[in-house]
Prior knowledge:
Chain A contains 13 helices and ten strands. By secondary structure, the first copy, chain A, is an alpha/beta fold. Chain A has two domains: 18-59 and 159-329, Rossmann fold (3-Layer(aba) Sandwich), CATH 3.40.50.1100; 62-153, Rossmann fold (3-Layer(aba) Sandwich). In chain A, the strands form two sheets. Chain A has a six-stranded mixed β-sheet with strand order 1-2-10-7-8-9, with helices on both faces. The interface between A and B is medium-sized, with 33 and 33 residues.
Amino acid sequence: MPRDRGMKEGTGLRAPTREGVLRAADKIAALLPPTPLIPFDIRGVTVWAKAECLQPVGAFKIRGAWHRLSDLGDEARARGVIGVSSGNHAQGVAWAARELGIAATIVMPSDAPAVKLDRTRALGADVVLYDRAREDRDAIALALVAERGATLVHAYGDPWVIEGQGSSGIELAAQMERWAGGPATRIVAPCGGGGLTAGLALACPDAEVLPVEPEGWDDVCRSLEAGSIERVGPEPPPTACDALQTPATWPINFAILRERCRSWARVSEAEVAAAQRFAFARLRLVVEPGGAAALAAVLAGKAPVDGRTAVMLTGGNVDAARFGDVVAGGD
Amino acid sequence: MPRDRGMKEGTGLRAPTREGVLRAADKIAALLPPTPLIPFDIRGVTVWAKAECLQPVGAFKIRGAWHRLSDLGDEARARGVIGVSSGNHAQGVAWAARELGIAATIVMPSDAPAVKLDRTRALGADVVLYDRAREDRDAIALALVAERGATLVHAYGDPWVIEGQGSSGIELAAQMERWAGGPATRIVAPCGGGGLTAGLALACPDAEVLPVEPEGWDDVCRSLEAGSIERVGPEPPPTACDALQTPATWPINFAILRERCRSWARVSEAEVAAAQRFAFARLRLVVEPGGAAALAAVLAGKAPVDGRTAVMLTGGNVDAARFGDVVAGGD
Lengths: 331, 331
């Protein structure tokens, strides 16, 4: 198991704030159209899907990356940025860096989906591969940071990133008000390291935020149950949810989640595949496994629904052959 | 070949108008969120995809059906409606009828995709099947109309339907203004009988409207070339674009298209499949073959693009196994 040495220790990070989320939302609104809110019925109740898989890079990660990079000063921009990601944050950082003329280097696992590696490179980023089982990605990133004086843009343990991801909640609130007749009472969201869920909690202070993780990659569920940060078990099982394979959340995220999350869910690989098929057939959306985790919890009855429950569909970057097998697979 | 006996002769239909399109757009805006406009780059130019496949029934057809049915008086509503469709108009009519408490009967070809037959029935409509090769669907519909006094809601040859489909152009214009910096200069759209393209022409008087048909199902292309309505050839080839298999356009549509269309395109089955793969991989959208025809023309270089070209993605109802094969197929 890789360890999160070094970067995890307190680094004097400022706490993310709701004001920061609102500022991020303003910046994003000037740049990108809101992603659509798509209703569907399940067990006789209307549920509202926020289709973040329709962002330009196919994932909500563009939000945090844009908020972070656009706040950098000229000197920091000139030194470049370093990201660590299995692929969606990678593309978010690469996209924002390209738009702003900043050099980006992304540390990615060698077993990331080919489509994510290809697209990150296509956006002009320099990709450094590591072996997920044997190497410590954070150590590699830290070495690059030290060598170049570059800015690390962590995938979830960063106040700008948390605020940026939270901008999806500001959009959601306006859309729910217009179409669902009031704000979301509950937001069900896929959870890796807790960047999105922490951002949503800041964005929507009156909503329950319900994180969903794949079985075995349940560090946030374990941490919420223990009341302190816990890592995933010693030999986590394989999962199709590459985007959610984080060994542990960070204090900056957990401080928010511990205060705000009252329930959470773990979903099986079969439940995730069923959710991908549902999104294909009923919503006409391409959703990757990790992006379908929250929908999987809703469909499996592991997350309660009322008429104002929102479910985040967070990403849609999936290899074609794999996706073809899943949708044609049936139940 | 079936013939369009009877209904084709002049029936005193009023002409659709831009005022009607604007009224339809107001009615739709109160009911459904705008479908997203999603930019993508092709040959160095940004093109704007209007994702009508994300409508509740998975196709733009919900627009015309809603405009038509919601304008019916109490007496007409009590007598019910009859639709004729391979599946998307069927679902649009069934959806609007269910919302308004109107009985709907849909005449559908027995070779329609199973998913379209199933979903039309699931919306509560009564489905009457016919054999596409041997029976005349319009004759079947006319008999039902005569027998019940029901209102025929034609899939394209109806002023309300044309105006309703045109409401997508009103949404598009507002979105282009906001995100593309000005109105669409060109709208590339899949074309069956010409309901959508005629509606777009009314909605966007300053845009070029470019209809796209599958090779061999090119009655509108032939008609535009001839200057008068022409049918498809005597033995049109098989096509995956079931939604675009119309033998001939109607005078009410052609009167508008003849005035407004300066160019048009025919696309091959391979070009359509490539467009479905592009929509899957780059836009994360599930698009059915007929819904991808305009995108196919853009990708194949058969429709010119500038920075303000819009392309309509009109439907996303496709059988899972078929879609899996197409996306996994590669080029």
